[in-house]
Recover the amino acids of this structure.
């Protein structure tokens, strides 16, 4: 089929053709963003879906993009890779979703057919991966196009809480897969999480699935550390005095931790992880790094440690949906601020000044279409 034929051979909502523009949060280079008009997305391939965003959020990765840490994001890109939406149009090749379905939009796009997808490594899908808000327009808009919809959307459970389940677009599977599973957290482990932002707190929530003996949370922000304590951290450590590693070693009687999770993406936090990992331990990097870090191999070469780094594959999302539905995992506790989608510029100001604003996750709500 040619592209023009794709657009005709779809099932669509009647409203999509009535208005050709929408509002979107657009990146215009480091430090530059704007809430502006853009054309509404259209079906480009038979496996596409178009969704109207109902609930969204902002990710720490979006802040890294705005700092210029992700060069694959170019001027004019709509940001965002998380959201809950209503399907308004589907291509003829989409079989699992229909117009009117409410869906959780995955931060990872998966064709389900390439060699990486067949290995479950959806983050490196040859036709997808992390493309939303990166190499194609993302979810911080009124409408979004989802390629490979059958592998990139999840059904929203009946009666579900949008504010809780939007956390399953990215931060919960990211914290769980990149931090907890890569770190091989086991019962009885001592775990340190460096960074008490939303991703670090997602690691904290999901690490408790495996009953570690202790979870130490390290951050500069006392407000975030207080939240971490409420969510199950055994001990919290403010690293402002530069003695966080020393304090961890005191708490572990000089042994260090079995798992050190880096959840910020800057050299000082990676250095803390290297300083506190025990012999035979694991360092699990979760943070998005925009600058080089120094690997202290002269101190680590004989320590029998493992270092992992990965992008989330979202293969655990269906399981996490069930746990949220059961009430045993409550990601809604991470929400601190709520905005209308059209107030997203203010939401970015709040999220970007998290310490001053006491912000963790912000919720963006898009009202009914005009």
């Amino acid at each position: 089929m040619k592209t023009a034929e794709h657009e005709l051979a779809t099932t669509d909502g009647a409203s999509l053709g009535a208005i050709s523009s929408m509002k979107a949060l657009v990146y215009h280079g480091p430090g530059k963003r704007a809430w502006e008009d853009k054309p509404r997305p259209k079906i480009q391939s038979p496996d596409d879906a178009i969704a109207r965003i109902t609930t969204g959020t902002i990710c720490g990765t979006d802040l890294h993009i705005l700092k210029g840490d992700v060069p694959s994001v170019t001027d004019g890109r709509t940001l965002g890779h998380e959201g809950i939406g209503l399907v308004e149009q589907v291509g003829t090749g989409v079989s699992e979703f229909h117009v009117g379905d409410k869906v959780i939009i995955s931060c990872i796009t998966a064709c389900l057919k390439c060699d990486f997808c067949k290995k479950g490594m959806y983050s490196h899908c040859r036709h997808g991966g992390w493309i939303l808000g990166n190499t194609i327009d993302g979810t911080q808009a009124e409408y979004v196009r989802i390629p490979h919809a059958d592998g990139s959307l999840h059904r929203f459970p009946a009666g579900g809480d949008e504010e809780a389940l939007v956390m399953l677009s990215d931060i919960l599977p990211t914290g769980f897969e990149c931090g907890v599973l890569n770190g091989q957290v086991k019962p009885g482990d001592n775990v340190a999480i460096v960074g008490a932002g939303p991703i670090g707190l997602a690691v904290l929530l999901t690490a408790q699935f495996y009953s570690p003996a202790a979870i130490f949370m390290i951050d500069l922000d006392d407000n975030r550390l207080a939240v971490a304590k409420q969510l199950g951290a055994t001990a919290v450590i403010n690293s402002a005095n530069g003695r966080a590693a020393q304090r961890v070693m005191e708490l572990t009687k000089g042994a260090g931790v079995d798992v050190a999770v880096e959840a910020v993406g800057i050299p000082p936090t990676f250095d803390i992880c290297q300083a506190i990992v025990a012999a035979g331990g694991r360092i699990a990097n979760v943070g998005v790094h925009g600058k080089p870090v120094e690997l202290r191999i002269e101190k680590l070469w004989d320590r029998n440690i493992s270092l992992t780094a990965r992008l989330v594959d979202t293969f655990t999302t269906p399981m996490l949906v069930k746990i949220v539905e059961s009430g045993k995992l409550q990601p809604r506790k991470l929400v601190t601020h709520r905005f209308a989608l059209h107030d997203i510029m203010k939401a970015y100001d709040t999220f970007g000044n998290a310490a001053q604003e006491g912000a963790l996750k912000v919720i963006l709500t898009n009202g009914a279409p005009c």
